[in-house]
Write a structure and sequence with these properties.
The protein is an alpha/beta fold. It has two domains: 182 residues, glycerate kinase, domain 1; 231 residues, Rossmann fold (3-Layer(aba) Sandwich), CATH 3.40.50.10180. 39% of the residues lie in helices and 18% in strands. The strands form two sheets. It has a six-stranded parallel β-sheet with strand order 3-2-1-4-5-6, with helices on both faces. α12 packs parallel to α13. The longest helix has 18 residues. It is globular and about 65 Å long.
């Protein structure tokens, strides 16, 4: 792997494509379909992969079924028996609220012989939005926006979301009792904790109202008065692990970041490139994670440790961005800009950072590519890399040098994918 820049970029893109393909619902869902129930089968779900998951269920299920899933705008696919609703992400809207209310009603109408099949993937926390009594959608939107800008980790954000919800944190499964509940999960969270993925609507919740209050305090978020009062009252806790209403609930993890990293590593090794997986659950401020990855890559290039080049470093997880500027871009762009600045034009190192759902933050790109001349090309285009980083404006920089990775919705989501190539 010693060709020109174009060849290196294509190699990195091929690894990303292999990672996404490993999490394709059409490929990973069918082996986990449950046996038909004595009663009826109802399918519900939420997340960026929900529509593709529903389509895979329809293709492989023998018999009648029905239901509803909610996915992000632009992530829907045609289904014959399962209704597909599109709604807003990452800040919820009325379409998501209506869909969540209908999903809860479907669950509440089931009996002991029935089966509720839940298709849950990343993005479900925002898409499956049903505020607790006394809290408006506007209140939840305000808290959600504040959390997104705060730098809070996904587990922290979802803890708060669960305690402002009438459907998350195990409440959907509790509503379905005494029916059997089978949940198929595609993980987009570090650690693959089912209680965190989409805020765990069908699993017992280990967090509390007190935890939610502490998270808002930690990030100096002042919520609307209705939210403050609801969290302070702590009137009805979420169902916990061991709750008798959850006894007939089964959960299967059908796709996860580590499996996609392994698929990318195998793709690299198939063309003779050594691959080293740094981890599937890396968190932290995106630009700082970029700095650390740059340090590891430079150590490989200079000293042959922790591995000698040529090789590709792979990692996954979910970084965060504390928004201080008014620029454009998601966490993968910010990671890549931090990495590029730390590498400072190292001629032997290339990188790709992208979200496996095809959307980096709220922009139209999945992520970006870094080449040895990224910073030089940006400066020639009149873009100051340091100012771009300070203003959270990585998107504009990578757009100026034509190094955005644009895929459109991939219809799956196993979170961030990063590949650093050292020649």
């Amino acid at each position: 792997m010693s060709g020109p820049i174009a060849e290196a970029k294509q190699f990195l893109r091929d690894l990303f494509d292999a990672a996404v393909a490993a999490a394709d619902p059409a490929r990973c869902l069918p082996p986990f379909l449950p046996a038909p129930p004595r009663g009826k089968m109802v399918v519900v779900g939420a997340g960026k992969a929900a529509a593709a998951m529903a389509r895979a269920v329809e293709k492989h299920w023998q018999g009648a079924l029905g239901g509803l899933v909610v996915t992000r705008y632009g992530h829907g696919v045609a289904c014959d028996q399962i209704e597909i609703v599109e709604a807003a992400h990452p800040v919820p809207d009325d379409a998501g609220l209506t869909a969540a209310s209908r999903i809860l009603e479907l669950a509440q109408g089931l009996g002991a012989d029935d089966l509720l099949l839940c298709l849950i993937s990343g993005g479900g926390s925002s898409l499956l939005t049903l505020p607790a009594a006394g809290i408006s959608l506007a209140d939840k939107q305000a808290v959600n926006q504040a959390l997104l800008r705060s730098g809070a980790a996904i587990g922290e954000m979802n803890c708060v979301r669960k305690h402002l919800s009438a459907i998350k944190g195990g409440r959907l499964a509790a509503a379905a009792a005494p029916a059997q509940v089978v949940t198929l999960l595609i993980s987009d969270v570090p650690g693959d904790d089912p209680a965190v993925i989409a805020s765990g609507p069908t699993v017992g919740d280990p967090t509390s109202f007190a935890d939610a209050r502490e998270i808002l305090r930690r990030y100096d978020i002042t919520p609307p008065e209705t939210v403050r009062a609801h969290l302070a009252a702590a009137a009805v806790e979420s169902p916990k692990i061991g709750d008798p209403r959850l006894v007939d609930c089964v959960t299967h993890l059908i796709a996860a970041p580590q499996a996609s990293l392994i698929a990318a590593a195998q793709a690299a090794e198939a063309v003779g490139m050594q691959a080293l997986i740094l981890g599937d659950a890396i968190e932290g401020e995106a630009r700082e994670v970029g700095l650390v990855h740059a340090g590891i890559a430079q150590a490989c290039a200079r000293h042959g440790h922790p591995a000698a080049p040529p090789l590709v470093l792979l990692s996954g997880g979910e970084t965060t961005v504390t928004v201080r500027g008014k620029g454009r871009g998601g966490r993968n762009g910010e990671f890549a800009l931090g990495l590029a600045l730390a590498l400072d034009g190292n001629e032997r190192i290339f990188a790709l950072a992208a979200d496996t759902d095809g959307i980096d933050g709220s922009e139209d790109n999945a992520g970006v590519l870094v080449t040895p001349d990224t910073l030089a090309r940006a400066r020639r285009a009149g873009v100051d890399p340091m100012a771009s980083l300070a203003g959270n404006d990585a998107y504009s920089l990578f757009a100026a040098v034509d190094d955005l990775v644009v895929t459109g919705p991939t219809l799956t989501n196993v979170n961030d994918f990063r590949a650093v190539l050292i020649l």
